[in-house]
Design a protein that fits this description.
This protein is mainly alpha-helical. The chain contains nine helices and two strands; from the N terminus they run αββαααααααα. Helices cover about 60% and strands about 5% of the residues. A two-stranded antiparallel ribbon has the order 1-2.
Length: about 170
Amino acid sequence: MVVKDQLIKIGLHPILVELGEVTIAQEINAKQKSTLNNILMTFGFLLIDDKKSRIIEKIKNTIINHVHYSDEQLKTNFSEYISNQLHHNYNYLSNLFSDVEGTTIEQYFISQKIERVKELLVYDELSVSEIALQMNYNSVSHLSKQFKKVTGFTPTYYKKLKERKRTPIEEL
């Protein structure tokens, strides 16, 4: 809503405003782009207008949406899912992501899954085995090993911690 309001205030007409993506009705000139960039920065957003950066953001948003906001179980493997969502060859996406981000798409996906697991553990509404099932792990053991590798704690121990420190999505 903030982004949409700011676009309208500077005379741009947004057609679509979604997480990480805006489509505007007209081409914008350099002055409008600079003004928009300055406004977005005051709200903690970045204007990304080169093709590679847009693809990286789409990869991240696809992963975040799938892990944090969707209950849909993948019917294909993860690489096919990303490839289908972004309409690019997975090898191209993977190499681009690794070059720019310094980590693999798979590691980013795992870090997002672990953050979601942390969130579910903190809510304390599901057992570890229910979380493993919901997060599409093959077993509680698989979840526990991956969780410990990333956080240094077992899910059970993490759940017992009084001070739960989560990493914001933006900092992953």
